[in-house]
From TrEMBL:
Gene3D superfamilies xref list: 3.90.1200.10
SUPFAM superfamilies on file: Protein kinase-like (PK-like)
Protein origin, superkingdom: Eukaryota
Species in which this protein is naturally found: Ignelater luminosus (Cucubano)
InterPro entries: CHK_kinase-like (IPR015897), EcKL (IPR004119), Kinase-like_dom_sf (IPR011009)
Name under which the protein is recorded: CHK kinase-like domain-containing protein
Residue intervals of the CHK kinase-like domain: 123-318
Length: 405
């Protein structure tokens, strides 16, 4: 940890903190967390004028369990996230700055330092919680204001990829050179691919779909060659692609608020870019929408589709590109129909995880020691099963009503 300690002293110096003291260094423990361990660390000292001050940081350390690292490709996932913070996000920032955007690329936390060629890999971030940002309660679905705010932010995020490819294709191609599809790697190697297949198949009986013959028949048809359908979704990348967040559930976004009741978000930051890949922006949108939107919001799909596309179009114009050329609305609608079922697959698993009590969640490292996949880690019963059934039934009905399956 000597390198980290030296790095922290350098960070303190750059931030104008003298006589800095580290409250503690994080311990690297095998088997904690999911694919990483996150610790809060405070640098305390004085300003140059002698006033006491503090800088709060988050240190994200890759999992050290060797079997877990191999099966989930931890090194590859961390290298991808480090690339985002070291190369891609700075390029996005400069692109927006050069085009006169007043507050360039306010999408992600500040990353002070990365350690890519160490084992475990490490990233050091600003602690957004100290800056007034709050985590969402994962068990709750978001209200309309949050859903709209997130869709608008994703519109701006995706617009940068489209505009950069449009205006400076050589720079963009260099930026994404050797870009790896981490979703394929992670899903296939870890066994999560078949976990998703199992989850969507179980819905047929779990939701008692026989009670509605139309929905039952449509869902049965969807399950035909379901493995090929998921394979297509995690692999396809047509000409209208962007750099995706690709891990778009509520735990990976933090909110700052206009009001004390935390109903009206004013700012959003996206975190965790380990699964990033190239693909249609729809993959991010359906991932988020079918995980975080309420049953009531599903009924207003057209409203939310328009919210996203208007944000994307507005930011594209601000960056100097024409949305009708780089991502026409007709293509956007076509992609919804083509890729929407990605949200159905993910929601069948992620709603189960989101509704789990803390004592129900299974430790991945423990599971992997018994088996060579993480599939068993998601096969537990949850006490909130009725809420899970209610959410998933609304989603399945939505897919049938909109002819997405």
């Amino acid at each position: 940890m000597n390198n980290i300690q030296e790095c922290l002293m350098e960070i303190a110096k750059k931030e104008g903190i003298v006589n800095a003291v580290i409250n503690h260094l994080p311990e690297i423990e095998e088997g904690q967390g999911y694919l990483s361990n996150i610790s809060v660390l405070n640098l305390q000292g004085q300003t140059e004028t002698g006033e006491n001050c503090k800088l709060s940081l988050l240190i994200k350390i890759a999992a050290t369990n060797e079997k877990l690292r191999h099966i989930t490709a931890v090194d590859q996932l961390f290298h991808s996230e480090i690339r985002m913070y070291e190369s891609i996000f700075p390029a996005f920032y400069e692109f927006e700055k050069q085009r006169g955007i007043a507050n360039p690329f306010p999408m992600v936390p500040k990353c002070y330092k990365t350690f890519e060629n160490t084992k475990p890999e490490i990233l050091i971030f600003e602690n957004l919680n100290e800056n007034g940002y709050h985590n969402w309660n994962r068990k709750l679905q978001m209200n309309s204001e949050h859903v709209k705010a997130v869709l608008k932010k994703y519109g701006k995020f995706h617009a940068v990829s489209f505009a950069m490819r449009d205006q400076n294709p050589e720079q963009f191609q260099q930026l994404i050179k050797n870009f790896v599809n981490n979703s394929v790697t992670m899903f296939k190697r870890s066994g999560q691919f078949y976990t998703l297949i199992i989850k969507v198949k179980k819905l047929l009986k779990l939701l008692n779909l026989q009670a509605d013959s139309k929905i039952f028949k449509k869902y049965q048809e969807f399950l035909n060659e379901v493995e090929k359908k998921l394979e297509f979704l995690i692999s396809d990348c047509d000409d209208f692609n962007v750099i995706l967040h690709a891990d778009c559930w509520s735990n990976n976004m933090l909110f700052k608020y206009k009001d004390t009741e935390h109903l009206l978000p004013s700012e959003i930051r996206f975190i965790d870019f380990q699964l990033t890949r190239l693909g249609s922006p729809i993959f991010d949108i359906v991932h988020f929408f079918y995980i975080c939107a309420s049953k009531e919001d599903l009924k207003n799909l057209l409203v939310y589709q328009q919210v996203y596309y208007e944000s994307l179009s507005e930011h594209l114009r601000a960056l100097g590109s024409n949305p009708d050329s780089v991502f026409p609305f007709a293509v956007y609608e076509e992609h919804w129909k083509k890729y929407a079922t990605f949200g159905l697959f993910l929601s069948s698993l992620e709603h189960h995880t989101m509704l789990s009590e803390d004592n129900e969640i299974v430790n991945l490292a423990t599971v992997i020691e018994k088996d060579d996949s993480i599939a068993e880690a998601f096969e537990y019963e949850i006490v909130n099963i009725n809420e899970y059934k209610s959410r998933m039934k609304a989603i399945v009905e939505h897919f049938v009503d909109n002819n997405f399956i």
